[in-house]
Amino acid sequence: MRQLRAVTVFCGSSAGRDPAYAAAAERLGRALADTGRTLVYGGGHVGLMGRLADAALETGGHVVGVIPQSLMAREVGHRGLPDLRVVATMHERKALMAKLGDAFVALPGGFGTLDELFEAVTWAQLGLHGKPIGLLNVGGYFDSLLRFADRSTADGFVRPEHRALLVVETDPLALLEALAAFELRPASKWL
């Protein structure tokens, strides 16, 4: 079993329209705290980010937020965190979040969440990290994305071993267990 001391979570700065998204973020925050794992996330107090962090904190978990100065200036930074790291750029944010986590999880979110998710997948594909990557598929939110990944694989744009990098579950505890058990395959034959 892989050691998952800290999990980097990507998610929306909006809560979305379906209350199931916020409930799932809260369940994941509590699951991380209950299993003694640190939550690493984007440092916001709004949307799913805020719900995730607050649930982890309320359950006694350790939370590390990473946020660029430009977003702190807009007052979206979570000032109740014991460890809030303010960086200069979005690139620094993503790099630090990647460094601090032993695995990645994506909750529902928009373009920013997908950017972070695909960067983590691309880095694994290129052999830049060996960390597992999970999707918490709340209410089928990622179903279309998974169909796209399957189509990309069928059409020869994504190798099957790279498609297999995405671990998908609908329950937070099941996802954490699957990530801990995940064996990352050798990344790329062309490196």
Secondary structure: number of strands? 7
Using the alpha-carbon principal axes, give the shape.
globular
Calculate Rg over CA atoms: 16 Å
Output the structural class.
alpha/beta
Strand order of the largest sheet: 4-3-2-1-5-6-7
Low-confidence spans: 187-191
Largest β-sheet summary: 7 strands, parallel
Give the SSE string.
EHEHEHEHEHEHHEH
Work out the helix count. 8
Tell me the span between the first and last alpha carbons. 27 Å
Helix content: 40-55%
Beta-strand fraction estimate: 15-25%
What's the mean pLDDT score?
94
Explain what the structure shows.
The protein is of the alpha/beta class. The chain contains 8 helices and 7 strands. α3 links the parallel β3 and β4. It is globular.
Tag the structure with descriptive keywords.
191 residues; alpha/beta; 7-stranded parallel β-sheet; 7 strands; globular
Give a short overview:
The protein has 191 residues and is α/β, with parallel strands linked by helices. It has eight helices and seven strands; from the N terminus they run E-H-E-H-E-H-E-H-E-H-E-H-H-E-H.
Write the topology of this structure.
Elements (H helix, E strand, L loop, with lengths): L5 E5 L8 H16 L3 E4 L5 H12 L4 E6 H5 L9 E5 L2 H11 L2 E4 L4 H15 L7 E4 L6 H12 L5 H4 L2 E4 L2 H10 L10
Parallel strand pairs: 1-2, 1-5, 2-3, 3-4, 5-6, 6-7
